[in-house]
Model the fold of this input.
Amino acid sequence: MEKIFVVGAGTMGNGIAQTAAVSGFQVTMMDVDASQLEKAHETIKKSVEKLFQKEKITAEAKEGAQAIQTTTTLEGIEEAELVIEAATEKLELKKKIFQDLDLKASPGAILASNTSSISLTQLAAVTSRPDKVIGMHFMNPVPLMKLVEVIRGLDTSDETARAVMEVARKMGKTPVESADSPGFISNRILCPMLNEAVFALQEGVGTAEAIDEVMKLGMNHPLGPLALADLIGLDVVLSVMEVLQADLGEDKYRPAYLLRKMVAAGHLGRKSGRGFYNYE
Ligand code: NAD
Done:
């Protein structure tokens, strides 16, 4: 594989595009929002400069990242052997995107999704190539985190799974397989903990700072749960909790009301400048 087309240039899309490009793939990054593409380009430029200064990447890898193409349409997608979708976490939106990708991408291309919780089987079912649809769940921040959770839909072929694991390894990541179950392994465990931290804040068990300090100093977490929720994006955490609650059918997964209020107010965490902490 040589060419990767990344759909969505937000928090995850730009990290995936950067990591693929510094690993030697030719990358095109697409977003419907041109301002997101500009922001992504700036983020990548700063990130690769920092990695180059720290001698973590070569000059050639830095140039590879600077050569990432950007577009607001699916133009050029037919050349890609792998498409990685990292658009907003909404089932209906992703279904529509997968229908479009299926129509426009080369028939042999693999269509991967970076979804945090949506069923790969459901996304595969809207395409004519369910054997070539798979989850490639990167972690945030993508250039630094080692894991790629690989999720097969019901009809994903062994060949597709093997191919994306090879791509993940070429990107310097370690692929680990999870079943196509709500939230997979990572978010089935992580998001309820983040949601519980929001409940604790809502009920006055502690301040945001106290909750995060307890988990950092007491449990050796590198980041407190509220700071981590801000990093992930509160809208993403809310969407994952909604999927867990709906698909596992248990009340213990209900999203904290404060989480809903923060998202409704547009306080999405780092990406909007304000979440449980202020980043402005
Ligand atoms: P984000 O809100 O930062 O970015 C989403 C991007 O998708 C935006 O730039 C938006 O303009 C774009 N978009 C919306 N509709 C589109 C379309 N039709 N075509 C192309 N682009 C479109 O979100 P994010 O945090 O980068 O999340 C992206 C995906 O990655 C989600 O599925 C999320 O669950 C998953 N994910 C997120 C994290 C995290 O820590 N944030 C971690 C792992 C996986």
Summary: The two ends are 40 Å apart (CA to CA). Residues 62 and 173 are 18 Å apart (CA to CA).
